[in-house]
Amino acid sequence: MVGEVGPKFSKKFLWGAATAAHQVEGGNHNQWTVWELENAKVRATQAEYHINDYASWDRIKKQAKNPNNYVSGILANHYERYEEDFDLLQKMHMNAYRFSIEWSRIEPECGVWNQEEIEHYKRYIDALKQRGIEPIVTLFHFSLPVWFAERGGFERRSNVKYFTRFAKKIVSELGLSVKYIITINEIEVYAVQSYWFQDWPPAVHSPYTFWRVINNLTYAHRQVAKSIHKVSRHYKVSIAKNSTYIYPGDNAWSSRASAAVMQYIADDYIVKKVIKHCDFLGVNYYQSQRVYGHRIHNPEDIVSDLDWPMTPGDIQYTVERLYRKYKKPIIITENGLADERDAKRQWWITQTLIGLQAAMKNGVKIDGYLHWSLIDNTEWSYGKWPRFGLASVNYATGERTLRPSALWFGRVIKKIRGI
Ligand code: IFM
After folding, report:
1. What does the domain layout of the chain look like in residue ranges?
2. CA-derived radius of gyration, the chain
């Protein structure tokens, strides 16, 4: 069984799951909720052309062609039902949970703090602690207050001060009740979707703005990390870096050179700018990419519902590379798959844990694994049809049910933790 061979996962290892406020809470009002309402019909109409080649298309087309799929609305109502969701963590014997604090709730207008919402998140964290679960807080996970987006968001360096002010407020309110803080989730994914592919708000295509946003976000991380560390070294701070393992598919010089350049741009350009201000490195792993000549080509026949090629074991090479280069302990801050039928999740987790153990055997320090996601949620511009949850959510009733793979994973964690 996983965990029985190779190096042991330490007693302190963080076993958990992750979510983000906009994807699960429901009832938000932010830049995304506005964009969803404006774009739902278009996305539903375009699904036929954009994703009809997915292997899952026949199964998901009804939902993908329905405008309601793209409007988050109340979702799983995690905002009110969080205790129920924390019970699910406990059922799986988990001891960690990553979530984001929704900036638009805390600061609905520039400089106006909503104390009731602050108290909500304090109760939320208390509820985790009462269950022996370590909170891992994300400060920016893709959703911006409308007022901040209207001022140009992270396109403007001068706006970073607002984010730093929000971060300081959160840290001063939460005090020492939290230790792990992720400043920003997936800098490059946010920039590429919003300022290159035009799939996310503000849906602009501008290479110049794309690079500017990346640089402003790395700057934002440094500013926030410095101000948090000034308060206390108790806090362990990082970004969550989405890292794809990119490698040459053959031995051709062009394949090797292109893979190296792509990997550098995708990972190192960003990590180098923040790593001095990270206590650990948060890594989100979903896939690897093979490069032939100058092109990415992954002829795998196993794909997830989102048509992503599935190579979970390659997480080993991602973490080995990042650890060798940056020498910071790693926490897997996200890892998972869209798998409505729960056909591949158990296999995925098994391969992932085997990959992590192999990396640990080769000297990599890994302090935690957080599965994406705890419950089904909205997958940004794809809407609600992709199902990433360890627990499925019936959106009509709000009922949560741990999927068979989650029950199995819970037994594995119990055994590994020896509880
Ligand atoms: O749902 C997203 C999450 O918000 C960021 N990381 C990747 C996940 C799956 O695409």
Report:
1. 14-417
2. 20
Answer yes or no: is the C-beta of 379 below 6 A from any ligand 1 atom: yes
The answer to whether residues 194 and 186 touch, using CB atoms and an 8 Å cutoff, is: no
Is 144 near ligand 1, meaning CB less than 6 Å away? Answer: no
Structure tokens belonging to residue 115:
């104390």
From the CA of 418, how far away is ligand 1's center (Å)? Answer: 31
Whether 305 lines ligand 1, by a CB cut-off of 6 Å, is: no
Distance between Cα 190 and ligand 1 center (Å): 10
Report the amino acid identity of residue 309.
P
Q: How far is CA 70 from CA 34, 38, 101, 189, in A?
A: 11, 10, 22, 19
- Report the mean per-residue pLDDT for the chain: 97
| Architecture per CATH, 14-417 | Alpha-Beta Barrel (3.20)
Report the separation in Å between the CA atom of 185 and the middle of ligand 1, taken as the mean of its atom positions.
Answer: 9
| Residue 186 in contact with ligand 1 by CB distance below 6 A | yes
Contact 332, 296 (CB under 8 A): no
Report how far residue 192's alpha carbon sits from residue 181's, in angstroms, rounded to the nearest whole number.
24
Centre of ligand 1 to C-alpha 379, Å, is 7
Distance from C-alpha of 315 to C-alpha of 317, rounded to nearest angstrom: 5
pLDDT tens-place string over residues 215-255:
999 999 999 999 999 999 999 999 999 999 999 999 999 99
**How is residue 202 annotated by DSSP?**
T
Give the containing element (helix H, strand E) for 228: helix 207-231
| pLDDT beyond 70 at 168 | yes
Which ligand 1 atom is at minimum distance from the Cα of 20? 4
Q: Reduce the DSSP state of residue 304 to 3 states and report it.
A: coil
Q: Which residue, chain included where needed, has tokens 């987790």?
A: 349
